[in-house]
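Support request, please re-run this one:
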Amino acid sequence: MRILSIDSSLGTQVAVVDTAETAGLPGTCSVQVLSQAEQADTRRHAESLGQMLSEALSAPGVADRPLDAVVAATGPAPFTGLRAGLVTARVVGRTRGIPVHGVSSLDAVARLALDELGARQGEKDPVVLVATDARRREVYAALFRANGPDDVTHLTEISVCPPAQVAECIAVQTPEQGSGAVTIDAVAGSGAALYPELVGTASCHEVLAPVSGDALAQVRIALARLGRGEELGTQPLYLRHADVQMPAARKRVR
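Re-run finished. Output below.
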């Protein structure tokens, strides 16, 4: 299957990949990158996406075969950048007559962090706190555990709150297990890089994968969920209203 993946939750990432089921490992897929582009500017998504998409789709080995699907990040992330990526994904899907699937940006960050933890000796069924920058001195935060080699499971809902309140939000949603609360093995995400105090919530005081999304990880997650028959909607996860609001109508003076 040939898939276009778009992530605009922090900077902008575009990738075209070929996927195939891994021999001897039912339910897992290998992902071969055919073309990839990335830019780090968090405020130039609309200006960058068109050119990046054109380059990715016209690269050698890509233009010779049609796309089968599009996967796009659904956030949560700042309103304008997230909307630019999702609109682009939907336009490509509609013009080419192919399905568009959505994956949360936090899920992709969690998958990368769990990959890194799983590659170490002695890390068994680790738990990762993902905290990404929500601006306004807040973060989007949730706890995750692996669900097989390519997917993740939410242990909490995604919250948007100041960094100082993350531990409290997690404690409310996670019942104590045995002698204490759930142990967090590492923290990941751009919010953790911005707010070092979040590292104190992890038992090893370690930050992994300081990003807010990943175009390749979200393909792995999408394929795992589609393989289980799940529907992957593309509704954006804003979690709060946009910074810019339309002015209210003026009241008439009688």
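The longest strand covers residues 29-39. The chain is about 30% helix and 25% strand.
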